[in-house]
Amino acid sequence: MNDSTFMAEALAEARRGHDEGGVPIGCVLVRDGEIVGAGHNRRVQRDSAILHAEMDALEATGRQPGAFYRDVTLYTTLSPCAMCTGAILLYGIPRVVIGEHESFMGEEDLLAERGVQVSVLNDHDCRTLMQRFMADKPSLWHEDIAEQDDAPASR
Amino acid sequence: MNDSTFMAEALAEARRGHDEGGVPIGCVLVRDGEIVGAGHNRRVQRDSAILHAEMDALEATGRQPGAFYRDVTLYTTLSPCAMCTGAILLYGIPRVVIGEHESFMGEEDLLAERGVQVSVLNDHDCRTLMQRFMADKPSLWHEDIAEQDDAPASR
């Protein structure tokens, strides 16, 4: 299993979110070569302000001791926002693999400043899914990142 | 209603968490002089990796447009960790009032760097509740902030 394989799993989560009518972003957490948590954005599905894909995957992983996260790699289809970046920093996750950051540039600089290894795959399928959603449901997308409808997306 | 009054409400939330056997940290979100969301840490109660007090209060507030948060003040009994700080930044909450930061120093510098107004009340009751908990249940506290049991608390 390599980065592309795990990103495909994160993308499958994103597609699940899309099929549910939600924000199509997915995430998996991998430890010792195995997926230990998977999730997707559930803002619409759960009427949630906090269940971004990364948060949903962390929640799916359950309560763990701090040491657990030191061997985890987080795969997310889209560059992580400030909230998800903060969760990555809280848990001390050492490596983050990002499907794409053209649709939205998150807090990759902050992650790198704090010593997190960040890789961006520039994945065509992640980008296509996200950009179709942004064109179809701009208000939902802006709500998800707390932007005004007419403001540029960068947070 | 002033800062002390709202902090008393956050502290009441923290005490609820304590009475439930959880991590005793509470939070309220205030907008136009009214509490629009309240919550407390539910790591134990919900077997949750993400329901810190601030996240629980954001979730209780429900889905809102981005503009909603621009008039919100967040009151939390303890200095916010990286995850909750990230959520504050995502939602563009302009002001954070902190009960105390002696028991744990969170990401106040990052909040200030990003233009969030941070006030620390040095509240005796918030500190007493927290320090009693940290002495009684050190492993639970360390799990909550993803520290090793023998590591110093600072994140």
TrEMBL record, chains A, B:
GO terms for biological process, alphabetical: nucleobase-containing small molecule metabolic process; pyrimidine-containing compound metabolic process
Top-level taxon of the source organism: Bacteria
InterPro entries the record matches: APOBEC/CMP_deaminase_Zn-bd (IPR016192), CMP_dCMP_dom (IPR002125), Cytidine_deaminase-like (IPR016193)
Pathway terms, separated by semicolons: Pyrimidine metabolism
Any one GO CC term of the record: cytoplasm
GO molecular function (one): zinc ion binding
Domain CMP/dCMP-type deaminase: 1-118
Keywords: Cytoplasm, Hydrolase, Metal-binding, Zinc
Subcellular location: Cytoplasm
Pfam families linked: dCMP_cyt_deam_1
SUBUNIT field: Homodimer.
Name of the protein: Cytidine deaminase
